[in-house]
Amino acid sequence: MTEMKRIGVLTSGGDAPGMNAAIRAVTRCAIYKGLEVIGIRRGFEGLLEGDVIPLTSRSVGGIIHRGGTVLRTARSERFKKPEGQVEALDRLRELDLDGLILIGGEGTFKGAWALHQRGIPVVGIPCTIDNDIEGTDMTIGFDTAVNTALDAVRKLRDTASSHDRLFIIEVMGRRCGFLAAQVALASGAEYVLLPEMPFDLDHLCKKLHYARRQGKTHSLIIVAEGVMGAQDLAAKLKDTAGYEARVTVLGHIQRGGSPTAFDATLASRMGAHAVKALLEGESGIMIGSLCGQMVTHPLPVAWEEKKPLSDEVLSLMEMLSI
Ligand SMILES: Nc1ncnc2c1ncn2[C@@H]1O[C@H](COP(=O)(O)OP(=O)(O)O)[C@@H](O)[C@H]1O
Ligand SMILES: O=P(O)(O)OC[C@H]1O[C@](O)(COP(=O)(O)O)[C@@H](O)[C@@H]1O
Ligand SMILES: [Mg+2]
Fold first, then answer.
1. Which of 79, 117, 142, 176 to mutate to test the pocket of ligand 1 (most atoms within 8 A of CB)?
2. Domains of the chain, with CATH numbers?
3. Which residues form the signal peptide (predicted)?
4. How far is the CA of 249 from the centre of ligand 2 (A)?
5. Whole-model pTM above 0.80?
């Protein structure tokens, strides 16, 4: 095992609130343990270009509460190819880095695994508003995104109830519905459409008819972007059952803003645990938080096992939306 002297840290994939808190925790814990820290800008793309900056305790000051990522982020097609990975290896050697901490989602972890297999010690910190990573109850950024979307949905409920209207609200989630399900439950929406479940227009129309018969004068439908666009859903409801719906697409607003206390805390704990794991000689692993405890798993856990939606949450939605 090489003695760790100098490590790198990068953020990659979609940004998420709490990325800065994680960068700060990694940097300060590493410096506390006597390491030098190099920040790599714009994820794998910046790594390929050698776009780096030394990080100090002071340079990561004043960022714990800020959304986005001071290191910036990117999605890099070049790095996905073996030639890109070999090039990245050369850059890492030139930079004289003994290990790398990668903050991002499932795609970032696949990239981290490629580097691990090529002999670079890596540790992944799960950070995405999608919460679609197995091995951790929560990813950094998810709680903030839920609260941001919830705040918007509550405002829409005000106007929906004042005008006796049906609203369709589209939230992020191309392949997973954690955000949609949690926002729907917490906002008291009548219906939620998730990528994990088959779309059933007939069932939706029946629920809306039933709601009206029960005396409900307004309804909220949450749809994850991966199921279909909110406009398309509104058109289907109009064509099939004559429903007039107002549409709101929350979009990238869900990715910004200050991290909640939960996310800033999770990011700080995961950042510290990542440095500890790297110093203990671990590699090819991700940090997780299970039942409040910091844990580690091999990186492939993140994509080989699909994180299931909670049946309890789904059946509760069904019960509470009558
Ligand atoms: N299979 C893969 N092999 C190597 N690198 C990958 C792979 N998948 C994704 N990546 C790298 O990770 C980056 C971030 O992944 P992406 O899926 O965009 O975001 P996230 O990490 O948030 O899920 C990609 O742009 C790419 O450079
Ligand atoms: O910002 P982009 O590139 O349009 O990507 C949008 C996607 O990124 C996310 O916000 C976050 O996904 P990742 O964390 O996997 O990058 C998804 O919810 C959304 O589908
Ligand atoms: Mg992802």
1. 79
2. 6-141+259-304 (3.40.50.450), 145-255 (3.40.50.460)
3. none
4. 14
5. yes
